[in-house]
Amino acid sequence: MAGAGRLLKDSDKIVFGEFWTAKQRQGHPIHHTVSYRASFKPELPSFFMKEFLKKKNRVVYDPFGGRGTTAIQANIEGHAAIHNDIHPLSIFLASARQYVPKLVDLEKKLNSLDLDKEVEEDPFDIYLYPFFHPRTLKEIKNLKKYMVMDDSVEMKFISLIALSRLHGHSTGFFSVYTFPQVSIPSEAQAKNNAKKGITPEYRPIKPRIFQKMKRDLALPIPPFYHEFSKNNIYSLNSANSVPNVDSESVDLIVTSPPFLDKVDYEGDNWLRHWFLDIQKSKDRKLSIFSNINDWNEFIRSTLKESARVLKKGAYMVMEVGEVKKGNSILYLDEDVVRMAEGTGLVWNKTYVHTQSFTKLSNCWQVSNNEKGTNSNRCVVLRKVN
């Protein structure tokens, strides 16, 4: 085991408890507009903002921005945010909520779109037909054209909602029955359709988009949200090299790096990539590690870069978990503490969030507090020089 048991000697620095609720969807609905693999709850960054930021209008940074949970919660709590990720999909998910339009304006924009225009056949359509009825696909492709032509905040938010409805397991989605968080391969979807005896039915996308917007905006955005979100920075970089974030400009970092062998962000999002016209790139190397030494090396370089952007005395929170690797359990929080040595960051404390089973953990067949996807071990580091 990597670093197993080393931190247990410093038990005064390890705190156990339920620091935020284990219940699902307790944060503002805007957080749950779209699903994304390996996201933590908004209650997690909220807890540490309250713990370490005593004044409003601070700068909160997430180098592994993911769905944008840290950035959005920072704006909700009266702070500006820096959202960084190497994945263009992540940048879209976060930046599409930098400005949240009023429902009446969104409805007006949505109603103005003509989605019934004829569209050209595309060789790629063969991969989409297992998911969508031809008429539904036509509407989606017309929407994609509007997304290219219209850069308004209303159109961007509608695009985000459409992406969230692209595929899933109920009639509220555009697709036939499939998994909502993962774009399974087209061939696998075709086999599932045959096994279940189903074919994609026509599902008009406008009413589904509107109903989702109506639900997500049922609770008003805090009146000051846009006052802070207008100062957000969205950065497309690897977490260990973020040149567009100034040195000593950040008051708090709350983040969660990719765990070992957990998520294939490229493969799991191929339908979303198609929808947003995100092209494959050999230069975009999303961090998936099978070797703990490689993971540690990447974490060390990320911590060095994080120390550069943090103000002196400021805190960094890195949420990791225990990961089962063969017959061993890797306590990644212990490796984070070791990798911080010599970076300018020192270990302050580790919060081990204990919780009951959640809907997500049951869905993924994750045992409670045993694997990274259902365990929160938050390493708190402080910049000292």
From TrEMBL:
Domain DNA methylase N-4/N-6, residue spans: 250-365
PROSITE patterns associated with the record: N4_MTASE
Keyword Transmembrane helix: no
GO BP annotation list: DNA restriction-modification system; methylation
Entry's EC annotation: 2.1.1.113
Chemical reaction(s) catalysed: a 2'-deoxycytidine in DNA + S-adenosyl-L-methionine = an N(4)-methyl-2'-deoxycytidine in DNA + S-adenosyl-L-homocysteine + H(+)
Name used for this protein in its record: site-specific DNA-methyltransferase (cytosine-N(4)-specific)
Organism: Leptospira biflexa serovar Patoc (strain Patoc 1 / ATCC 23582 / Paris)
